[in-house]
Design brief:
Arc Repressor Mutant, subunit A; single chain; 66% helix; 3 domains
């Protein structure tokens, strides 16, 4: 059975379920509320729990056409990028929530109340599954309002609205507005075909092929940078700040004239101070190298015991000669 055939069969099935009268909605809603009013609902008496579950199931089954009607009439734009089955399933989840929260004592029809829960459930499902990268739910709501507010302000002001004007109209700060705009930027796939020749986006991007020698040189540079930062961290705080501004270690680099004016010293004195700090860093680096080099200590040679010379008596020597 294909997906289209399965959906047609399901639509035919729910179309045969009779609709509820206003009196039946009140009766079933009261049974559901009598069950769910217990905290937790499983602590309700068995009879109330059984009647509440049956009432909820009948209530939902009789109003499944509300979900289908909302998707077919209000979600034409979403149906172009999402599956209709998924949208109907999301609408059914909102329908179940509406049945559980429906209070028949307020005097309005269930279809009016359920519409808003179905709409919220579909929008939330699209926010969670409609993007390659999920964003916070509050940002999804701001992003859905941003387009309409922008168009309305353009008509009122006859120009493009500024960021503060958009933030004021949406009731958010500039930081939140910047995050919402950044999250709303479209994403491009690297497999997307961009030319008539069938070239993808990934094939048009520049790539750098590093050789093993380049990788080794890069690792050496990183290692040298880490050693330099370690040496600078041993200096006093004022000297660290001076070298950081002079060499741009923290992303902010000042010229020698600007740095001298900021420190309130002459340019010559600044140059001398930087030269002294460089010599101090060189001396520390030499000390680290000397400490890192393992001293080779030769182990003492084992002491050899000399053989004791045997002395021969003169009588024994004469006998040997004879």
């Amino acid at each position: 059975m294909t997906a289209a055939t399965g959906l047609s069969w399901w639509l035919d099935t729910i179309g045969r379920i009779p609709l509820l009268t206003p009196a039946e909605e009140i009766e079933l809603g009261a049974a559901v509320q009598a069950w769910l009013s217990h905290d937790p609902p499983d602590s309700a008496p068995p009879g109330i729990k059984r009647r509440g579950r049956r009432a909820r199931e009948r209530f939902v089954r009789a109003n499944l056409r509300l979900s289908v009607a909302f998707v077919t009439r209000r979600c034409n734009r979403l149906a172009k990028t999402h599956s209709v089955d998924d949208l109907i399933q999301a609408a059914n989840m909102g329908l179940i929530t509406a049945v559980e929260r429906f209070d028949p004592t307020r005097g309005y029809r269930f279809s009016t109340y359920a519409y808003w829960w179905i709409r919220q459930s579909v929008n939330r499902w699209v926010d969670l599954h409609g993007r390659a990268i999920a964003i916070p739910g509050s940002h999804c709501q701001h992003l859905s309002r941003l387009g309409g507010i922008t168009r309305r302000l353009e008509l009122q002001l006859n120009r493009s609205p500024t960021r503060p004007e958009l933030a004021t109209e949406m009731g958010v700060s500039l930081r939140v507005l910047d995050q919402v705009i950044e999250n709303g930027r479209p994403l491009a796939s690297l497999d997307e075909v961009t030319t008539d020749d069938g070239l993808t986006l990934s094939s048009c991007l520049a790539s750098v092929d590093r050789s093993p020698e380049d990788e080794e040189e890069l690792r050496e540079r990183w290692k040298a940078a880490e050693q330099l930062r370690s040496l600078i961290s041993r200096l006093p705080r004022n000297d660290q700040r001076l070298l950081s501004l002079a060499w741009g270690l923290d992303g902010q680099e000042l010229s020698r004239a600007e740095l001298a004016q900021r420190e309130g010293i002459s340019l010559r004195r600044l140059e001398n101070r930087l030269e002294e700090l460089q010599q101090q860093l060189r001396a520390q680096s030499v000390q680290l190298v000397l400490v890192a080099v393992q001293r080779i200590v030769s182990s003492p040679r084992p002491r050899q015991h000399r053989r004791k010379r045997q002395t021969v008596a003169p009588q024994q020597l004469n006998l040997a000669i004879a």
